[in-house]
Amino acid sequence: MRTVTLNNGVEMPIVGFGVYQVPAEQTEQVVDHALETGYRHIDTAASYQNEDAVGRALTNSGIVRDELFVTTKLWIEHAGYDATKAAFGRSLDRLGLDYIDLYLIHQPFNDYYGAWRAMEELLDQGLVRAIGVSNFFPDRLVDLIVHNDVTPVVNQIETHVFHQREDDHQVMGEYGVHHESWGPFAEGRNNMFSNPTLTAIGEGHGKSVGQVVLRWLIQRGVIVIPKSVRPERMRENLEVFDFALTGDEMNRITALDTGASLFFDHRDPAIVSQLAQRHLDV
Ligand SMILES: NC(=O)c1ccc[n+]([C@@H]2O[C@H](COP(=O)([O-])OP(=O)(O)OC[C@H]3O[C@@H](n4cnc5c(N)ncnc54)[C@H](OP(=O)(O)O)[C@@H]3O)[C@@H](O)[C@H]2O)c1
User: Fold this and answer.
1) Burial code of 26-36, b = ≥16 C-beta within 10 A, e = fewer?
2) Whose CA is nearest to atom 36 of ligand 1?
3) Which residue among 58, 206, 237, 282 has its CA within the 20 to 30 Å range from the CA of 46?
4) What is the pLDDT of residue 282?
5) Ranges for the NADP-dependent oxidoreductase domain (predicted)?
6) Which positions are annotated as active-site residues?
7) CA of 245 to the centre of ligand 1 (A)
8) Which sign, positive or negative, has the C-alpha torsion 65, 93, 231, 3?
9) Which residue's alpha carbon is nearest to atom 5 within ligand 1?
10) How far is the CA of 36 from the centre of ligand 1 (A)?
11) Residue 91's pLDDT band (boundaries 50, 70, 90)?
12) Which pTM was predicted?
């Protein structure tokens, strides 16, 4: 599996497998399939409430620990120094691991500076190999970087053909933060899978729209974590290293950008308030 080298030297597979919205009762089997298909990088979060099922699949796979790359995330209500340490311990237990590869602040809300200081210590203690953030706009990202010791290794943000985030990408590049896409297929919104430009480009390579958009992200150096509960799509989403998009094809895809989220804006006060209402069982 192709990897990127993070700013602390850790190697991260550029393609991973996301488990958001995979029902808890299905997650173990779905992750079993993903691991059988060849994924070694799994992206979960405390807020997905399926870490324990992910953990069972990891354990049952028999794959040696250092071949796996596991990301999980800290939820908003557990920000703050002490709460972060406790939440991290619970995630580690649920995943059945003794370290996590990448721990992310899921949202730029609540006391995430306290969270970051706790995460810097977890890094020092070897309980996590890398720390990063998610859903940070460039201003918040730079503020976190310039006021702390450790620079996040990634910023995981909504990124797909309709919301390409080129300005964010440039700022992340300047600070050595890798761009990681969530929602690489925009969850199929905007009829992405039948978009005429993407379909035509795919036909020229004998590839699906899904493969074209993953390839386009990878050629921009963006880490991708597509989600699918179907084994045939899991395989399809991994088969993106046997073709390349031309400069002209990359430019045609660039022209699809709308510059706007297809989900929600993390700077919208109503969203900040709404996300604060989401409480996990623990
Ligand atoms: N940090 C954050 O705030 C955040 C937010 C959202 C997501 N994420 C992460 O990013 C991951 C991916 O994003 P996402 O799950 O929101 O959406 P996504 O990967 O953009 O899209 C998933 C959807 O596409 C379908 N699909 C997958 N492969 C396909 C293919 N080859 N052809 C046609 N349809 C296909 C899936 O259906 P089937 O399952 O039926 O195949 C599912 O409906 C998540 O799982 C999660 O790990 C993070």
Assistant:
1) ebbebbbbbbe
2) 228
3) 237
4) 72
5) 21-257
6) 48
7) 22
8) negative
9) 182
10) 19
11) very high
12) 0.98
Beta strands in 16-59 (DSSP E): 17-18, 41-43
pLDDT at position 24 is: 86
Q: How confident is the model at residue 13 (pLDDT cuts 50, 70, 90)?
A: very high
Of 50, 136, 182, the residue with max ligand 1 atoms within 8 A of its CB, to mutate for a pocket test, comes to 182
Q: Is the CB of 99 under 6 A from ligand 1?
A: no
How confident is the model over 87-107, as a mean pLDDT?
Answer: 98
Residue nearest to atom 45 of ligand 1 (CA): 18
Report d(CA 237, CA 240) in Å as an integer. 7
Number of H helices, E strands in the chain: 11, 10
CA dist., res. 16 & res. 34, Å (int): 10
Question: Residues 280, 75, 67, 229: is their CA dihedral positive or negative?
Answer: positive
Asked if the model's pLDDT at residue 28 lies above 90, the reply is yes
Average pLDDT, the chain: 97
Residue entry with tokens 């859903």: 135
In 3-state terms, what secondary structure has residue 152?
coil
Q: Whose CA is nearest to atom 25 of ligand 1?
A: 228
Q: 130 pairs with which residues across the strands? A: 102
Q: How far is the CA of 21 from the centre of ligand 1 (A)?
A: 8
Q: Which among 46, 56, 49, 29 is positioned nearest to 86, based on CA atoms?
A: 46
